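A further point concerns the way the authors explain their paired sequence and structure data. Each protein is reduced to its one-letter sequence and a matching series of backbone shape codes. An entry of this sort, consisting of the sequence and the corresponding backbone structure tokens, reads as follows:
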Amino acid sequence: MCRLLCLATDTTKRRSASTALFLLGLAALAAPAATTTDPPDLRGGGATLEVSASEALVNPGETVEITVSITGLGDAAPPSLGTYDLSLVFDPAVFAYEMGSLEPTDFLGDGDLAEALYTVSAGAGDVEVVALSLLTPMQLTALQAGSFELFTATFTAIGFGDGVFDLVANGPLGDENGSEIALAGVVPVTVSGGSVIDIPTSGSVGLALMTLLLLAGGVLVLRRAV
């Protein structure tokens, strides 16, 4: 009797549980699908790197400040920039890098306080900068705005012509957690090293001399007549 009663009770419980699960399933199907609203994250659109110059035209021997900036990050919100490996490339026939002039900003942390690691290496026509923040994700996010400067370097004009300053990403940009930040694009800048003076051709020089001689002869004739 007890066995039958217990079996009946167990069967009733199982049926009740099955009925409850079935009803929950129907409710889930009838209810609208839940939509997950993620916090604003700019990784989809990506960040943009921009190169700017303090001068648009410099003569040989003069210097120009080249600044690299980033835009498209979160404003005191993810994503923040935690690491980068960038090469600033330029025309070595027009400009020369001033050794030791590159200064990273502290938006990834103060290198002197061991909050970040920075390395700079210069080659023929490029300067590579590697940066790694040692701050916590919360500290890094609170430190950065949506756009800021990464570093500034000084170059001296050594020739004539237009010199393009561009960027090459040697690796992906990393966020505060080490995840990749998509790079939407790079905006380079062009700086003119002096101006090229057009020298007249031999034919135009001869014509100019003939004109001067004729003018001089006319002046002499007038003086003699007087």
The chain has three helices and 14 strands. Residues 88 and 127 are 5 Å apart (CA to CA). The chain has two domains: 1-28, 47-193.
